[in-house]
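Let's practice the habit of predicting before peeking. Look at the sequence and jot down your guess about where helices and strands might fall. Then scroll down.
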Amino acid sequence: MKRKVFIGIVLVLFLLPTAVFATVASSNNIYNGMDVSNWQGYINYAEVKQNNIDIVYIKATQGDNIIDPYFKINYENAKENGLKIGFYHFLTAVNEEQAIKQAEFFGAVISNTSPDCKLAMDFEQFGNLSNEQINNISMAFLEKVKDITGKEVIIYSDAYDAANVFGGELVTKYPLWIAEYGVENPKQSNWQYWEGFQYSSQGTVPGVQGYVDLDKFTENILLNDNSEIPTCGEIQETNYVVQRGNTLSYIANLYNTTVGELVILNKIQNPNLIWAGETIKVPIKGDKSNGNIYGLGHVIYTVQPGNTLSELALKFNTTVQNIAILNNIKNVNLIYAGERLKINN
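Done guessing? Here is the structure:
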């Protein structure tokens, strides 16, 4: 009799549908956010701020030698307009040694910045790696980033990987920024709570050209300590992916180098022939000569007597409108000698 009852219970439980519970917000205090990279190009953060965006996550690096060309200008302009900042790294490591190297690269690039949000790992292309390898690589990267920057970290993952790939110690040690589109709440994952929820890849925000990822963030994604990250190393060169219409002179100007240096560094046979999609090594260096300070994606230019915005736009391969927006210039016909202008080139 008891045996029959036991079997009946087992069968009933087996036939019941599996309950699927949502991964829920870790706090009721929610910030509106977006995450950006070079795909968005130049962003008018003054306009973004006026349109209910509180937090922006900025792509800083990819692999062990690619710096996002818009990383620095995104950081500086978002900060100037009062948005809270986070950085993320696109991880491509296939072993723990590469993960540590990429963590060191990420740390070096974001040195001397002051983010407000946890540093994020974006690891989503796994090749033939096993789940165990993926988790070990992730742990090595996150631990190293936390160690060298002194900042808290977070895992970015889509809902599937958060439920089926990432697990174990990663879940207990690190919070989750989860991506799932077209739903009010993300599905069940190995985490009970999310601190970030990317809910759209086709959002529109005034001040941003084209589509942008939209996010919700809880107050828990904010760092306990948002002081400046210490110097974590120096970067000698980065990789630049050639865009349609680029020339070597344009790239040289963008990174404050010369066509000759690019030709030598990349063993280019014909300086007039480069291809869209080609990867070019670019030296990273600062130059304060003539009062100009160069950074990735922009230059701070000291206006000389007789300069006009149209002349500067032509010189730096940008537009008068972009310079005016970037510097909040009301009258494009009125600039002053000695004035320092940010120019997005």
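How did you do? The chain has a mean pLDDT of 85.
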